[in-house]
Design goal:
Structural class: alpha/beta
Shape: elongated
Distance between the termini: 68 Å
Number of domains: 2
Oligomer: single chain
Order of helices and strands: HHHHEEHEHEHEEHHEHEEEE
Helix content: 25-40%
Strand content: 15-25%
Number of strands: 11
Mean pLDDT: 94
CATH topology of the largest domain: Rossmann fold
Low-confidence stretches: none
Largest sheet: 7 strands, mixed
CATH superfamily of the largest domain: Vaccinia Virus protein VP39
CATH class of the largest domain: Alpha Beta
Length: 281
């Protein structure tokens, strides 16, 4: 057994194995894929790894300790004050990319509740050539998004989604969002490391978790052109209540709920109506 394998086995007794690999790779200055080919560990590397493991045992997210988080084909800078992108959101992002791929010409894309900008970065990396905007309320999160989206051409704006981008009303092809959606009544059920480290603004949204989703529904209706699409992530328990907001709004059709990697309800998609009472918009 190599030194790397011994270090990983020791750490995996107290933290998740995936976190142990991420932290050891960070301590060695290599990618996790290159861990098994890494040479002998030096004393300062072992000390650094042990410090990271202790911090992780104390509840600090591994991504905050490394300052990086993977998302689809990209990696973003993260840290205290910004929400850590989750693998579940990758499926919704992939759905959006396929919608854009199926359309001819340059499309206009708006990400609301952008956080670190991971979704926008993934889209422009995997499918460049579109006009993209990212809107985020938190000043702390915008600092990370600014770093992550630098040089991409994505237009980053700090502001409230409720009145974002009025100059684009009726012209946007795709609105995508991972809004806060945890119900306040579920506060105690959220893991302590999430509650204590990640920003509440990115997590909680009223008693039923849908306060921001209600605003998002109205903003998407305002921004989208007829036939444009919106997709928005939600909690598993909101698989009926989240789509019902888009149905009740009256400005959308083809409302459908969709699942994540684990086949759990995770995001709603809806199309901006092209007609009302048989008349074109």
């Amino acid at each position: 057994m190599t030194e790397v394998q011994r270090a990983l086995r020791r750490a995996s007794k107290v933290i998740p194995a995936a976190d142990a690999r991420m932290l050891l790779a960070h301590a060695l200055g290599v990618t996790p894929a290159r861990l098994l080919t890494a040479g002998p560990l030096h004393g300062h590397q072992i000390d650094a790894f042990d410090d990271l493991v202790r911090a992780r045992v104390g509840g600090t997210p591994a991504q905050y300790l490394t300052g990086r988080a993977p998302f689809r084909t990209v990696e973003v800078a993260v840290g205290p004050g910004v929400f850590i992108p989750r693998p579940e959101t990758e499926v919704m992002t992939g759905w959006a990319i396929e919608v854009l791929r199926g359309r001819a010409g340059e499309q206009t894309v708006v990400e609301l509740c952008a956080g670190s900008g991971a979704i926008s970065l993934a889209i422009c990396t995997e499918l460049p050539g579109h006009v993209q905007y990212a809107v985020e309320l938190s000043a702390a999160a915008v600092e990370y998004a600014d770093v992550n989206l630098a040089g991409t051409g994505v237009i980053l704006l700090q502001g409230d989604l409720a009145d974002a981008l009025p100059e684009l009303d009726g012209t946007v092809d795709l609105v995508i969002a991972n809004p806060p959606y945890v119900p306040l009544e579920s506060y105690d059920g959220i893991p302590a490391e999430v509650r204590e480290h990640e920003p509440e603004l990115a997590l909680f949204s009223g008693l039923d978790g849908l306060d921001v989703m209600r605003v998002l529904t109205r903003t998407a209706r305002r921004l989208l052109r007829p036939g444009g699409w919106v997709c928005a992530e939600h909690a598993e328990l909101q698989h009926r209540s989240a789509p019902e907001l888009f149905v009740a709004d009256g400005g959308f059709d083809q409302v459908r709920d969709r699942c994540d990697y684990n086949d759990r309800p995770r995001f709603v998609t809806a199309r901006r109506r092209t007609t009302v009472a048989g008349l074109p918009l």
